[in-house]
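## retry 2 of 3
previous attempt timed out at serialization; input unchanged, resubmitting
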Amino acid sequence: MKHSPTPPAAPAGTSGWFHLLLFGLVLLAYGPALGGGFLWDDAGHVTRADLRSWAGLGRIWFEVGATQQYYPLLHSAFWVEHRLWGDAPLGYHLVNVFLHATAAGLFFAVLRRLAVPGAMLAALLFAVHPVCVESVAWISEQKNTLSLVLYLGAALVYLRYEAGRRRAHYAVATLLFVLALLTKTVTASLPAGLLVIGWWRRGRLSWRHDVAPLLPWFGLAAVSGVVTAWFEHTLIGAQGAAFELGAAGRLALAGRVIWFYLGKLLWPADLVFIYPRWTIDAASAAAWLYPAGALGLLTALFFLRRRARGPLAAALLFGGALFPVLGFFNVYPFLFSFVADHFQYLASLPVFALAAAGAAFAWRRFGAAPRWAGRGLAAGMVLLLGALTWRQSGDYRDVFTLYEATLERNPGCWMAHNNLGIALTGAGRAEEAVPHFEAAIALRGNYAEAENNLGHALNRLGRPADARPHLERALHQHPGYAAAHNNLGVALIALGRTDEGLAAFAAAGREDPRSAEHAFNLGLALAQSGRTAEALPQFQRAVALAPRYAEAELNWGIGLMLTGRFPEARPHFERAIELDPDSAESRLMFGRALAREGRPDEAISQLRAALERDPGSAGAHLELARVLRQVGRYEEAQHHAIEARRGAPDGPR
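## retry succeeded, writing output
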């Protein structure tokens, strides 16, 4: 980057068409991901049911632990987006693409204000570089795209403040910086980055003009960092043996991380969602080659600063933005891998700026070819990177593609095995899921989550006896694991051990009192064991926790009907049908209740509706035959009685 003593006014005339070009290229490059669904961790970001109200928005801001991380602006954005398009993934993908393109445009604006040569090329490289795919194609990483827009907006306004010292500019820049911190803490590097830029531009720093205005920002950054570190350690679980590296190990890791990220920017090959987790051996001499190389490069750039400050400034900005994820602090993803593409989303900017500036400088100084040739080379590079991004974003189409691609490049990724197993089980392919859970357990050992998931899959396959030891093992490893208690309850009930099953469901409810599923399962088990009156409060609780829980509404209605309270039951049957209009079971049970209450015409209507949805339902045919006989329509009743016998499990085929 070539330094300039004073910031020239941004040239006009190219911004409009260039920003349109950026948006077009980004939209095209990320086309394969736009039709993608929700992936790992998206459920922790897309607003869950209990936070979708106005009161839920208040909880996002003022309740510790209401969201996965305390990023209230991010989760407020998700809250608004859910109000606009609910659970449709396309809306979230389009927002991420829009934010990424906006960030590229702001990056261009910042570089132009700083008179950095090659600003257009730098912005284009950032816009289409495949290392950014994880941040743009993965909905959860809206924290990256949104925070970068705010980060660059704050930087741009602060540079205007430096030029004119207007308080309004300082206030707006500070507000944008605070909003960036409330979206993702990595933006805390901004005040230090602005000092580096100030030194690069002027060759020195003034306490009064450069440092003092940023002191409040440093204070805000420190508070944000402490809060995030506490969340990672206390609420998210970034602690334990997997994070015990020692001081020497962390230093060795930091050096390797820096070179890894730089290498992926310069040669973006073999990108993968979860990289292999390195073994860091601080006693090995080879481990110290990385930090030694980084220190050597930094030293060389320091001595070259009198000729060109740009390379040293870019190195400091790159390292500073990466500092939170170099290994000196525990972050939860270190459990899977010490590196991830989304960790260097912000940090990549100075590298792109330096590369573009270097290319522009070299072309002007050494290039004998005409200008169009340089532009052709740049366009070729951008198109090549765009093609790589297009291919890489295809991995994010769905969970199956993502985890299969991950395991192809990282076969030892136990997390990918476990998550692929979850996806297969959810898709009704539990038989295919079982070997993935077994592989995850074999790779990691003492893996309570995979043991529980394996037990759940075996339950789904009708193998409760095989499921039970895995679920008990999960609870031995993690006694407070609510999901394992719940799945153990399912297995025990299926094995005829009702009292033990009820105790397991009750334990699940105690461990996770916000789970509607656990309350529903306890209610269902109580009802099936003849304790209907005790089941009713559990169905009521399930509906209170999940107001759109159709199955809980249905069983609540059935329970009320069985206890002779049809007037109270009716609205629950109607609500169940409203929530799931295609459910034949809801209409069958409502029809039975109506018939019992002496409302044959309404009952016939509901039973016919049930048969429209499930023409082979023996229960609906039999109940309809009974009601039709009651009203004297014997010929129709006989027809449905025959159909009922034909549809019964032991009837003629």
